[in-house]
Amino acid sequence: MSELTLTVMRLGFLAVLWLFVIVAVQVIRSDLFGTRVTQRGSRREAARPQQAARPAAPPQQRQQQPPSGGRQRRGAPSKLVVSEGTLTGTTVALQGQTITLGRAHDSTIVLDDDYASSRHARIYPDRDGQWIVEDLGSTNGTYLDRSRLTTPTPIPLGAPIRIGKTVIELRK
Amino acid sequence: MSSSSNTPTHHTSTIGSIGAPSRRNTELALLVFAVVIPVFAYANVGLAIDDKVPAGLLSYGLGLGLLAGVAHLAVRKFAPYADPLLLPLATLLNGLGLVIIWRLDQSKLLQSINQAGNAAPRQLLYTALAIALFVAVLFFLKDHRVLQRYTYISMVGALVLLLLPLVPGLGANIYGAKIWISVAGFSIQPGEFAKIVLAIFFAGYLMVKRDALALASRRFMGLYLPRGRDLGPILVVWFISILILVFETDLGTSLLFFGMFIIMLYVATERTSWIVFGLLMSAGGAVGVATFEPHIQTRVQAWLDPMHEYMLSQSGVKDGIIHSEQAMQALWAFGSGGTLGTGLGQGHSELIRFAANSDFILATFGEELGLAGVMAILVLYGLIVERGIRTALAARDPFGKLLAVGLSGAFALQVFVVAGGVMGLIPLTGMTMPFLASGGSSVIANWALIGVLIRISDTARRPAPAPAPSPDAEMTQVVRP
After folding, report:
1. Contacts across the A-B interface (CB distance below 8 Å)
2. CA–CA dist A166, B402 (Å, integer)
C-alpha cells in the first residue's frame, strides 16, 4: 500500500473520528449553550419596532427590559429558576407547558419538602402568554412575594414564589 | 382561570430538557455512524499491515452492527425516552477497542509471548454477552427506584465482590495485584461489578442521611466541619479502601471506591469540606500504605523514574521485584505518535508486551492516532460522563440523581486513573480502560452501567403523566405560626 494512501487514510480516520465527536456535540448543543428554540429571524423583526418604542414605554415596564436589549419578546420569562431549597439551581425551560409543583412524583418539579403538599401549585401561561401561578388547595399555601395566593395570579418577572422551603422565580 | 387554553397533559417537560420527542432516530443515525467508524479503522489496519482489506471485515462489521442494532431495538422498546448519545458513544468506543485489540493480535511479538492472538474474537464474544446483559438490565429494571430497596443488600454484595479476590483458592494474584478471581478457567475482575453495586448502596444511603450530613456541622475557617458521629461512614469507607490497598495492592480499585463515595457525598450534601477531607484522607492513606507495601512501592518507583525501571528490566537484575519496562514503553509510544500519529497498524506499541491490549491499550491509540486521536477518545469518554451528569440533573427523584452521579463519577474516575497511569501522571494501577481494553469483566460491567444510566435517563426524560385527581395531602406537615 502506497505511503500516500496510508497518509490519506490516517488523516481521514482522524477527521471521521472528530466528525463523530462534533455531530455528537451538536446533538446535545442545547445542553451546552442553552435552549434556543425560536427562529431568530422572525424574533428580531418582532423585536425591532418594539425597541424603537421603548423610550416611550411606561416606567413599570422598565424592569422587564432585557439587559441584552431587544432580543426577547416583551421581556417574556424563558425559564423558571429554583433559588432556595433543596433543588436550588434547578431550571426549567418555559415552553408554554404547565409546570406542576409538589411532593407527588409525577410533578414537573418534585419538591422534597415536608411542608409542601403532593399537588401544591402549578404555573401555566394564559392566552396572552402571561405566566400565572395557581395554588392547588395546598395545606400551607403558596406565597407570591409576601402575600398568600387565593386566586390564580400573574407572576411578575423575578418575584419570589415560596412553597414550603422552596423559592422559585421566573427569569429571562 | 384560563387553563383551557393549554392542555396540562401536553408534554409537561422534564427539568432542563427540551420538551422533545424520544430522539430514537437521532440515536439510530449516530449508531450507524458509530459502527461505520470502527469498520473503516479495521480496513485501515488491514491495509496497513497486510496490504489488503482483512478477510474478517464483513463478519466483524456485521457482528458489531448486529449487536448495536439489538441494543438499539431494546432501547426503542424498553426505554423510548432515553438519552440519544449514551448508546452510540459506548458502541463507538467498544468498536474502536475491538479494532485495536485485533490489530495487536496481528503482532508477531505479542503472539510469541502469548499475549495476543485470538483476543479480538473473544472480545467480540464478551461484547455480545455485555449487550445481552444490557438488554436484560433494560428489560428487568423497569424503574431504577426499585434498586433503592436493595440499599443494604447492595452494601453486603459490594463488600463480598470487593473481598472475593482475597478468598484463598479463588483469588488470583496476577503480577502483583490481587483483584482477579478465577472461576472455571475464566478470570473475573469483581471490582468492575462492585462499582455499580456500590453506587446503588451509596445512593440509597446518602439519600436518607444527606440532611444530617449536610446540616449538622460547625463552620470553621470557611469549612463546614461535620460532627464526629457523622464522620463514621466516611471513616468506614476510607478504612475499607485502605484495606483494599493493603491486601489487594491495587491503587486503582481503592481510589475508585473512595473517590466515588466522596463525589456522591459532595453532590448529596453540597459541602466542599468533604472533598477537602477526602483528598487529605486518600493522600494520607496512599502515602501511609506505600511506605510498607513493596508492590505499591514498585509502582511508585516506576512512576517517578520510568527510565530507571526500564534499565533495570533490561539489565535483568534479580532483586525479587518484577521490574517492568511497560511504563517507559508506553511513554515512548505516546511520544512517537506525535500530533497526528503513525497511522493505524503502523506503530510499534507491541513493545509494551505484557497487557498491551488491556491496561495499556491507550498507548496504542496514542501512537497510531496521535494526540488528535487520543483527545477524540477522551472527549468521547467525557461526553459519556456529561450525559450521565445531565441525566442526574434531569432526574426527578434524589435516588436517581445520586445513582447517576455515582455511576458517571465512577466511570470518569476509572478513565482518569487508567489514562493518568498510562500517561505517567499518576502511578499505574491494575484497572482497564472502559470499553476499549480487552477483558470480559470490564466490558460487561460497563455495558451494565450504561444500561442503568439509560434507564434513569429514560425515566427522567419521559413526559410526566397527568396528575391524579385525588391529592393525598394529609401527609403534609402544617406550618404552625
Report:
1. 179
2. 20
* Terminal C-alpha separation, chain B: 31
Q: How far is B165 from chain A (nearest CA, A)?
A: 38
Give the domain ranges of chain B.
20-462
φ, ψ (nearest 5 deg) of residue B362? -65, -25
Question: In angstroms, rounded to a whole number, what is the distance separating the alpha carbons of residues B88 and A4?
Answer: 31
**Nearest Cβ partner for A13 among B15, B40, B379:** B40
- Per the DSSP assignment, residues forming a β-bridge with A132 are A124, A154
* Coil, strand or helix at A122: strand
Which cell is B338 given? Answer: 506525535
Interface of B with A in 326-365 (CB under 8 A): 340-344, 346
Burial B229-263 (b: 16+ CB within 10 A, else e): ebeebbeebbebbbebbeebbbbbbbbbbbbbbbb
Which residues of A fall within a CB distance of 8 Å from B48? 1, 6, 9
Task: Judge whether B293 is closer than 8 Å to chain A, CB to CB.
Answer: no
pLDDT in tens, B2-38: 434 443 444 443 444 444 467 888 889 999 999 999 9
Is the Cα dihedral B372, B373, B374, B378 positive or negative? positive
Q: How much of chain B exceeds pLDDT 70, in percent?
A: 82
The residues, any chain, with a CB within 8 Å of residue B63's CB and separated by 6 or more, are B124, B128
Whether this prediction's pTM lies above 0.95 is answered by no
Helix (H, G, I), strand (E, B) or coil at A130: coil
If you measure CA to CA, which chain A residue comes closest to B480? A140
Instruction: Tell me whether B92 touches chain A (CB under 8 Å).
Output: yes
Residue B184 CA, distance from chain mean position: 26
- Distance, CA of B165 to CA of B92 (rounded, Å): 31
User: Which chain B positions have a beta carbon within 8 Å of A5's beta carbon?
Assistant: 47
* Interacting residues of B166 by C-beta distance below 8 A, sequence separation 6+: B178, B247, B248
How many helices and strands (H and E) does chain B possess? 16, 5
- CB-CB neighbours of B389 under 10 Å: 18
Q: Is the pLDDT of residue A66 over 50?
A: no
Query: C-alpha grid cell for residue B268?
Result: 448529596
DSSP B85-147: THHHHHHHHHHHHHHHHHHHHT-HHHHHTTS-SSHHHHHHHHHHHHHHHHHHHHHH-S-GGGG
Give the CB-side neighbour count of residue A6, counting CA atoms within 13 A.
20
**Interface pTM, i.e. ipTM:** 0.83
Strand partners, A123: A99, A133
State the Cα–Cα distance between residues B34 and B100, nearest whole angstrom: 15
